[in-house]
Amino acid sequence: MATYEKLTVPASGTAIRFEGGQPIVPNDPIIPFIRGDGTGVDIWPATQRVLDAAVAKAYGGERRIEWFKVYAGDEACELYGTYQYLPQDTLTAIEEFGVAIKGPLTTPIGGGIRSLNVALRQIFDLYCCVRPCRYYDGTPSPHKRPQDLDVVVYRENTEDIYMGIEWEASDPVCIELIAHLNDTVIPANGKLGKRRIPEGAGIGIKPVSKAGTQRHVRKAIRHALGLEGAKRHVTLVHKGNIMKFTEGAFRDWGYEVATTEFRDQCITERESWILGNLEEKPGLSIEDNARLIEPGYDSLTPEKKAAVDAEVTAVLDAIGTSHGGGQWKQMVMVDDRIADSIFQQIQTRPQEYSVLCTLNLNGDYISDAAAAVVGGLGMAPGANIGDNAAIFEATHGTAPKHAGLDRINPGSVILSGVMMLEYMGWQEAADLITQGISAAIANKEVTYDLARLMEPRAESVSCSGFAEAVVRHFGG
Ligand SMILES: NC(=O)C1=CN([C@@H]2O[C@H](COP(=O)(O)OP(=O)(O)OC[C@H]3O[C@@H](n4cnc5c(N)ncnc54)[C@H](OP(=O)(O)O)[C@@H]3O)[C@@H](O)[C@H]2O)C=CC1
Ligand SMILES: O=C(O)CCC(=O)C(=O)O
Ligand SMILES: [Mg+2]
């Protein structure tokens, strides 16, 4: 048993262990929770009420969660002292008990502390941020057909510019770094021409590694393998046309995982065109197939034409038998889209997407945008998953202007709790909550954010009132 400076571990309960990246869950798990800053004061009690009621109803006392209050953010400073935003006790508790849940934590813009939310993901190597965006019937939305969006954003969670390796413009190290880049590093690369970093610039570094990308893509593909029909689909989202060696590499490394480790279960979009063309027109020549997959083929240089022909030949040789004859239609489709395009696609053609596998920053943006389509940040849950720990939290932040007013929507943290119960294998309790939320919304018992979008506008319930409504509607 670990030692704690200011915390007392619950007298009863058992730790969740991890084996091979999977949680082994006892009937009485000790689960650390962080209340959170801002609206955390409203949301957390509402969430705990719903989770406890669901577990009690589903298992009649056979299973229960032993909550272990741990501290981060403003509350931690009150208990541990000034600037103690993320005390060692909290880290020890998450390490010892493996699965935790948290409310949002404040991060100042510009100077001040770095994000505690990001720090927790990095400290525990929670490399996949999983954010499902699906529609609950009756939820008001600015979109005409919000029900068409049913995606899971798989956001890489430990790399990219979120590593926080950056220097302020006035920092002497930054000035020295810019001089070194301008005088030595950039001229040494023949392709960068006369480019110069402007003096007075701040500098941030964007590391994207092959190992970091591939372990994340692997989890996204495994997720898609558990889905059915057209939802067996992973889209690698990137801005690889501009950031070739980070975002472009993310795409290439992602395809590499799909076409090596998951070769028998995956088909890429281009491979599907090649096989599909041949299925539609048996006897189609390599050149005509190449013409169909490559727009503008006839105006390509002979070398480029030969490369497309070679691609068609290679695909037919490698997987013509194993994937051809329509077999590929049962497999996980892996394609890629440029990030700006995916923002419009999830609004204009939402039904075409399923698992959106992204880098860190793109996933941050896309998860808020996708949440907006299906009803806003009040209904946007999330999970940070690693091989030895998992922390569940909503997509949104502290929403400070609503703090302490018992009016914010606790739906996102409650749904993050649903993800936690599913991760623990407690599906019966998770289902009760999902039913309760669906029925509360259908009954127009909703918080201000959803009430104001309803037509006619509905009378809103409080944050705690929504939790009570969810509990009342367990079982439909
Ligand atoms: N994982 C985390 O802990 C995160 C922390 N943050 C941090 O949170 C702080 C505040 O960030 P901010 O940019 O204001 O973004 P927020 O996500 O906190 O809030 C922005 C707006 O989104 C709406 N919203 C957010 N949560 C809910 C909810 N539960 N129910 C209904 N509506 C909701 C509200 O809109 P309206 O007022 O129009 O109703 C709110 O004003 C910052 O310090 C930021 O760094 C941000 C994101 C994630
Ligand atoms: O940590 C923060 O303050 C913001 C993080 C964030 O926006 C997110 O994880 O979605
Ligand atoms: Mg965000």
Automatic annotation (TrEMBL):
UniProt keyword terms in alphabetical order: Glyoxylate bypass, Magnesium, Manganese, Metal-binding, NADP, Oxidoreductase, Tricarboxylic acid cycle
Cofactor(s) needed: Mg(2+); Mn(2+)
Domain (Isopropylmalate dehydrogenase-like) ranges: 30-470
Top-level taxon in the UniProt lineage: Bacteria
Catalysed conversion reaction: D-threo-isocitrate + NADP(+) = 2-oxoglutarate + CO2 + NADPH
InterPro entries: IsoCit/isopropylmalate_DH_CS (IPR019818), Isocitrate_DH_NADP_dimer_prok (IPR004439), IsoPropMal-DH-like_dom (IPR024084)
EC number(s) given by UniProt: 1.1.1.42
Pfam family, one: Iso_dh
Record flagged with keyword Hydrolase: no
PROSITE patterns registered for this protein in UniProt: IDH_IMDH
Subunit structure: Homodimer.
Family: Belongs to the isocitrate and isopropylmalate dehydrogenases family.
NCBIfam families noted in UniProt: PRK07006.1, PRK07362.1, prok_nadp_idh
Record-linked PANTHER family: ISOCITRATE DEHYDROGENASE [NADP]
Protein name according to UniProt: Isocitrate dehydrogenase [NADP]
Originating organism: Cyanobium gracile UHCC 0281
Source species taxonomy: Bacteria, Bacillati, Cyanobacteriota, Cyanophyceae, Synechococcales
